[in-house]
Structure formats: C-alpha cells, structure tokens
Design brief:
alpha+beta; globular
Length: 91
C-alpha cells in the first residue's frame, strides 16, 4: 500500500482558482491561509484507509468533517473539496 498521506502532506500545492472553488463547494468564506490550514488538518486527521486512488486522483474522505478532498496523484495539487453525501462516500 502506498503512503499517499505523507507524500501529500510533504508536497501538496494549491492553485489560485482552488481557493474560491473550496469556499464555494464547502459554503465557507475562508482566507487562503485558513483554507490551507483546513486542508492540512483534514489530511492529517484522516486515516490512510480513507485514501482511495482512482485513475489520476486520490480521494480523501473524512467523515468527522463530512468532507472529501480530491487531489491529483501526479502533481499533489488539491483539485477540490466537497461535502460528503451518500453518493460520494462509496468512491
């Protein structure tokens, strides 16, 4: 099993567009720094068993925070964050 968690924590990167996307998808109004802190916290809190690689993306599901992160596995770039619902929990 790959250790996606540590690699993502070491290499994660953000684009300018992703900050607005995360605020919109999670229905929050956080600064860039607050978003980065939130993303790091979600990754650190989530058990490695909740990291699922499908194609080029890694999906991180954190049920306590009701959030799923999508990260590109090649670039370690955060793509988006979504609220979990019945449809996305099975990915």
């Amino acid at each position: 099993m790959n250790n996606y968690k540590q690699e993502i924590l070491d290499k994660i990167c953000f684009t300018e567009l992703v900050y607005d996307r995360i605020n919109k998808k999670l229905n929050v109004n956080l600064s860039k720094g607050e978003i980065e802190e939130l993303i790091f916290a979600i990754i650190q809190e989530t058990d490695e068993s909740e990291f699922k690689k499908t194609g080029k993306n890694i999906y991180i599901s954190n049920r306590e925070r009701n959030t799923r992160l999508t990260i590109n596995s090649y670039t370690n770039r955060i793509i988006t964050a979504d609220k979990l619902n019945k449809k996305t929990t099975n990915r």
